[in-house]
């Protein structure tokens, strides 16, 4: 299995960390921008796109600051993470996304996140 490359992308999002966190950590929030549908069973989230399903476990969670999902059916150590930061001086809220892409698919993965985060920004009025 080819190694995956860790990628990080940062987006400025004009809303409170609390509002943003709700969109990143709940089935209803994630289904508004991340997947067509999201089902939760315990800490396992099943994301549905068209006819594809992928399950991830919420492995890390800090209220209004961080959510990490580890893919259940992928190699150990692959996950995607949403980290919310707020600049103390300006109050600007940033969303830092960490993900892993197959070699050669880094740009495609970044473009996909940009599209999805664009939907998220629209939802929160950013």
Automatic annotation (TrEMBL):
Boundaries of every START-like domain copy: 1-125
Lineage top rank: taxon: Bacteria
Short name of one Pfam family: START_2
Coiled coil: none
InterPro entries per UniProt: START-like_dom_sf (IPR023393), START_2 (IPR045736)
Name the UniProt record assigns to this protein: SRPBCC domain-containing protein
